[in-house]
Design brief:
This protein is an all-alpha fold and 113 residues long. It contains 8 helices and no strands. The protein has helices spanning 2-18, 25-46, 50-59, 64-71, 77-80, 84-89, 92-98, 103-112.
Length: 113
């Protein structure tokens, strides 16, 4: 995941720098929502087994019953990435601490420059 964050940071920096003259604030916000959902999906997909999903949800602060319930879901990766449980565990602050640089933050840095 560190490599993904590195490549994503490079892509975001280049994309925002290229389009900084345009008014892309709303587009950046839309891309942030989609990208965060995609990152949540990558984590969920990385935790392949039910036990791994359960254990990682427990580590992230979800109670035992709910962690077991979501770990056993048959929903697809993309659908579960938009669930309430992953939004609670992978908050925007947590993703930022893991290394995610959002489009909106980068746009405000470049726009103020």
């Amino acid at each position: 995941m560190e490599f993904r964050y590195l490549k994503l940071r490079q892509l975001i920096t280049g994309w925002v720098s290229y389009f900084r003259l345009a008014d892309i604030k709303t587009k950046c916000q839309e891309l942030d929502v989609w990208t965060r959902r995609r990152i949540r999906m990558c984590y969920w997909k990385q935790w392949k087994k039910i036990k791994t999903k359960h254990d990682n949800l427990r580590k992230l602060g979800i109670d035992n019953f709910r962690a077991w319930e979501y770990a056993n879901t048959r929903k697809g990766y993309w659908r579960i990435s938009n669930s309430h449980i992953l939004a609670l565990t992978f908050t925007n602050e947590r993703l930022k601490s893991l290394g995610y640089l959002s489009f909106s933050e980068r746009y405000t840095q470049v726009a103020n420059f």
